[in-house]
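Let us practice reading a record.
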Amino acid sequence: MDDPGQPVAYMERTRAYYRALGYKADYVWAHHDDVPFTRLAKPLAASRVALLTTASPLDASNKDAKGWRHVWSAPVDPAPDKLDTHDLSWDKETTHTNDRESFLPLAAARRLAAEGRIAGLTPRFHGVPTEYSIRKTRTQDAPDALTRLHEDGADAAILCAL
């Protein structure tokens, strides 16, 4: 058991996990030397914020042959009670995703807006797939998500990943 007073050795645990699955090479984390993050153009209190999640919609009738491996959007109001997280990688033995706020904090964001810390939320939140393809993320999913953020008038975005 890890010492509760110390940080979780996430990267080493991940390496051990992949080795236990039989992978010969350690997992290689993506890194980007040219990340296009920029400073906010206006104060956060004047900024409209969009939330992005890696969870999927519950409605299985809308899934394509690959599941929800594409960017999707849904209104923040009414907020969905639940989202699908079963196909994502997270420690299912130690925790759960029954609390939607833990990976899509709409109520917390609304409180920040009510307190004047942010100008408000965009009308939609967006789902982005967790892909192992950096190429697909860079050429398809990221540009699609950025287009949706511009359509919604987002000044800032928060990725709430599982």
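A brief commentary: The CA atoms of residues 24 and 154 lie 43 Å apart.
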